[in-house]
Amino acid sequence: MSDVFSYESFLGERRREVLERVARAAARAGRDASEVEAIAVSKTVGPEEVLLAKRAGWSAFGENRPQELVRKLEALSGEPDMAGARFDMIGNLQKNKINQVIGRAALIHSVSSAHLAEAISSRCVARGIVADVLLEVNVSGEATKSGLSPDEARTGAEGIAALPGIRVLGLMTMAPARDADAARRTFSGLRELAAELRGRTGLALPTLSCGMSDDFEVAVEEGSTLIRLGRCVFDQGYALSR
Length: 242
Fold this sequence. Notes:
The protein has a single domain (about 1-235), classed as TIM Barrel (Alpha-Beta Barrel). Helices cover about 45% and strands about 15% of the residues. It has helices spanning about 1-30, 45-55, 65-75, 100, 115-125, 150-160, 180-200, 215-220, 230-235; strands at about 35-40, 60-65, 85-90, 110, 130-135, 165-170, 205-210, 225-230. The model has no long low-confidence stretch (mean pLDDT about 95).
């Protein structure tokens, strides 16, 4: 029991530290910290740790794999302390896993192609539901990353947004690892692309999902509204930089 209490205390203290850093980064950019939401990426922990994180103040969680999303939702479905929690799908989504995600994930961050958007659309229509989604854009151009190219986003966003059964709320990207300058260019590029798409399409695109444990402060400075934090939330051995 003492170990559980100690870990929950760590989760609460780390959350306070993260939110303080978010507030300072937002202030540096002339933003209000209330514009930024942090989600706890729970892909490496079990339902027990998610429950402790919810008790420590986290209310939004992110999963990379559809089967883990389903497992955690089922395991935690009877927990009163999980009331008000939401789970997002943040990882690559294969077409044969769509039915596991729609109707369960509050937001799908990783719509990486028009074909995937069309598949999500058709399955949502068949079930009479609407899925909130983000378009994943490979702003950095790295071959190892998935997503629409910026040009594909420019030419395809309006058509994707017109599909029935989905609601495009914004854009998502991932930055190169361990390169602060490249991360800043990537995040500012996403912000600029979103502004361009708003002008081209009339879409509001209020959500920019970018920034993870190693670079979330830079992301906030560059306009992120949704940061995805895993290691810095759950790993007691992870030391926040800066």
